[in-house]
């Protein structure tokens, strides 16, 4: 991927936040919607654009789509995310809050069920 394509992608605040969450590990679309408060249609559009750029991949688990960053993670993406999480700006602070919220969600899921996120979605109603 060209640097200009990556920067065009992360210039969008929603895409930046999605990539930030996915760097910490795979998530189903329903959990990303819950964390970012974004409608499913908009989330799907953003994920499709990032998939086309070769940044994310998906796998189906029943009716759920699980997204993750393509391995190995793009070095330029990783460096930019690390820099932005340490910088002092409102969007940068949001990236940190998103990761805190993600960790809380993962803890809630672990407390609800030791199985995969698919069965958890049924229990917590995020699908």
Run of helices and strands: HHEHHEEHHH
Q: What value does the Rg take, in angstroms?
A: 14 Å
The residue fraction in helices comes out at 55-70%
N-to-C terminal Cα separation, in Å?
32 Å
Sheet of most strands: 3 strands, antiparallel
Which strand order does the major sheet show?
Answer: 1-3-2
In round numbers, the mean pLDDT is 84
What is the fold-level CATH name, i.e. the topology?
Answer: Arc Repressor Mutant, subunit A
Architecture (CATH level 2) name: Orthogonal Bundle
> What is the count of helical runs?
7
| SS strand fraction | 5-15%
- Structural class category: mainly alpha
Overall strand count: 3
Q: Provide the number of structural domains.
A: 1
**Coarse shape:** globular
The CATH superfamily label reads Winged helix-like DNA-binding domain superfamily/Winged helix DNA-binding domain
Q: What is the CATH class name?
A: Mainly Alpha
- Report the uncertain regions: 118-127
Walkthrough of the structure:
The chain is mainly α and 127 residues long. The protein contains 7 helices and 3 strands. The N and C termini lie far apart (32 Å). Helix 2 packs across helix 6. A hairpin with a 2-residue loop joins strand 2 and strand 3. It has a 3-stranded antiparallel sheet. It has a single domain (3-119), classed as Winged helix-like DNA-binding domain superfamily/Winged helix DNA-binding domain (Arc Repressor Mutant, subunit A, Orthogonal Bundle), CATH 1.10.10.
